[in-house]
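TA notes. Do not distribute before section.
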Amino acid sequence: MNSIYDELRAAIHSVWNRRWLALGVAWVVCLLGWLVVAMIPNSYESKARIFVQLDDALAEQIGIGLGDRKRDIDRVEQTLTSAVNLEKVVRSTRLGDDIKSAKDMESAVLSLAKNIKVVSQKDNLFEITALARNSSLSEAQNAKLAQDIAQKMIDIFREENMGGGRGEMTETLDFMNQQLADRQKELEAAEARRSAFEAQHPEMIQGGAGAIQRLETARSEMRNIDGDLAAAQAALAAINGQLAGTPQTISVAGSAGGARGALAQATTELSGMRARGLTENHPDVIALKNQIAALRTQVQGEGANVGGQPNPAYSSLASIKAERQANVQSLTVRRASLQSEISGLMSNQLGNPQLAAEAQRISRDYDVLKQQYDKLLQDREQLRLRGQVETERNSVKFQVVDPPTTPRGPVAPNRPLLLFGVLIVGLGAGVAAAFGLGQLRSTFSTASKLEQAIGLPVLGTISEVLNEAGRDLRRRRQRQFIAGTAALCGIFVLLLVVEMIQVGMVA
């Protein structure tokens, strides 16, 4: 522990003996360092935030989705700091005052690109940060320049969203109109070819694919008619069977031949009971069956000289039969007509295969061109409506949440900290220079160091004895040293005051 203490005392003594060297080195280092710090221009920062509104019910209704508008915003954000836009900023602010050549402009654009940042904070919130540190401008001018740069970036953001999309939409509509004009000419030429072909070959009107389609339609209709005809014939056969089992006249009870009428009525009642679900063992059914058996015996005894009246059921069945016969006859005629049409279409296809192929090709070309023209026309109208919505309603709306701030002070460099750091480095450099020089010279500050160096015991030391003149000289030099050190610290304080005054003038 004593050895460390002795070493520390020796180091302090060595530095104190060379304090003027330490003070000189500190002065040189501090003056050079402060000069470098003074040459660093202050950087002033201006920030602005904008909110982009993407939701619009009408825009989504016509096909401008949320993803489309987000892609537009991303595109603007990526191109906002392009060289073209930065050149606009340079020309519209004080950065362009000293631009005299293309090289100067390129240098200004590159420097400005490092001082501008566009950051997306949230989904629809963007922050624009602009820095200004032009050494040729004053502090207040640099602060105003930073605010102007941020405002110009907002203006460019607005122009890119409002005007850029409109220009692209106009170019797209022009391209669509040109394509529509070309397709219209091709469609008119195809119509002329088809008209000329049909005029020359009237039997092939709507030929080719149209004839094949008509043939398939006729065959399909023929199959349907065959099914309907079979069903109608079956219905006619059924009604014929019912009509054969129904008497044309019925007898009336209480008059001549009344037994026959009663038998018919009883038979009808028996059929009604069976229709209601009564079984043969039901008492009513058994009684009615016995009654019918007695009436039949009576009818046989009366003979054939019996009068009667027309049967309504027979008349109704006869009417239904006539209707179904007419239906069968109509379907038969329609089937013969379709068969004739199918035969004619097949004969045209088989008789002129090359002509049918030509008709089919012409019809196919016309249909393809017509579909393309209709699709382009629909797309053009949709784009026109979309352009009107973007122009009149501006589907991408944004609001300046925080306008560009006016800098109240520089954000960089931290000049007071740098000035203090230079002072500490200067004092440290002076102490290090004095200590290093003491180590290079072969002197001994204590008796113990001398003993260690020569390996012999030191019998004693002689202290320095000063007379009155020597003591006055020492005191004067100490005052001069203190004054020099105080002057160095005073310059540091003066530089801090100057910095505060400059910042205060900007605020």
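Switch to the second chain here.
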Amino acid sequence: MSVAAQGGATDAVAHDVLILGGGITGLGVARLAARNGLSVALIERGDLASGASSGSSHMLHGGLRYLEHGRIALVREALAERAAVSRMAPSLAHPRRFLVPLHRGGRMAPWKLRIGLGLYDWLAGRLALAPHAMVRAREALTLEPEIAADGLLGAGLYSDVVMDDARLAIAVARDAAAHGAELHTYTQMIGARPLEGGGFEIMARDTLDGTDYVFRARTLVNATGAWTDGVRRQLWRALKPGAPEPAPLLRPSRGVHLIYPPLTRGHGLLLFSRDDRRVFFVVPLGHHSLVGTTEVEVPSPPVEDDFRPTVEEMRALRAEVARALPAHAGTPPIAVMAGIRPLLASEGGVGEASREHRVIEENGVLTVAGGKYTTFRVMARDTLEAIAALLPRAIRIVDAEEPLPVPPAGEPSLDQLAAFAVEHEFARRVSDVLRHRTSLWLSPDRGLAEAQRVAVVMTAKLGWDAERTREELRVVTAAWREQETLLARVREDS
């Protein structure tokens, strides 16, 4: 490594940029900066993509619902990125047809939906997928026989892209590393100070093996998602002691998704909540269906409990499934996931908050706030432009749409997947493999049965002792029990 252990660092600035945060935003910045010749280090206090980047609705999309709020530019930009990222990761992003049922007395009038879908196609331009269509009730029921038939007027059909959010983020990380970026997971910032002559020194600690590091960089990027305000405040106190603390940038919201066995015949569904009339989705995800999401405002920065789904949120989603797909009213969910969206602070309801982003420069510290997964490359470009303005040399930013590294081809064994995750995908814990590098988390036991085998492979690869192996399995089992307890309370309603 070019990163020196604490106490042994030289006075030289080792990196052009140090990125805090290993979600899709930070990884996108690392990839683009490294591809443009900058020396890059990234630290993430957990696993890569362990926050909102693995808790999304698993869609690369323009955001059809944003058209209602007049965010035309955002939708156009996101649709262009939908196409670009799909080309870069064809094995992880797949076009899907979505159906929008229309019911008598519903939130969306047929004429309004027709205009919205037409505008969505038009904004995609030459990059559009299969065009929209409007169908009668009988045709809609032929396509998806289990949607609620009472009062059904018809449906709209349109196209979007379903992706594997965590594995796509890992692919971006691999691309960044292939171009020289240093990625450090389970590494927590513990201190910061300015350097004479410019730049920063960041002290950090590996929370798994206890190693201390010192990173010296010309610029810092705070790309910590839901924790943005907390990290910004921590840096402010260290670098500007005594100065008034900055106002929060975010208004985060928790989104909960339920995982079901397949609920449709292959289509995604865009639906409208009965209680608050917000949009939610049924998304085909492999051999499962993802249902969500909720919108619950949480403090900034959030605390640990804010990341836990509540029984009330899960029951609300189940009620929506029962209303939209009556035949599945008694179908229990097999898993639940929650993430916190780093939404920009705004007036009005949190469900109407902007999905745009901001890049703020404060004496060499760049904060990336807001944004949505689909536009991670746009956020990276905007951030790199701000970084370039602070560097002593000029750089010409090029963002190539070359293919991202691909997961193992064919049908690899579990041993091969686990070994690949350690050797090429930065996995350091059993849970990393189960949740973010395979689809084992979608199995009924969330991969618990396979955890022992994964632990055997990782023990051999990483040199764990017996106690460390047992601890890894204890962590996985505890997480499974916690989720099972929560799901059991919701299943009691069946």
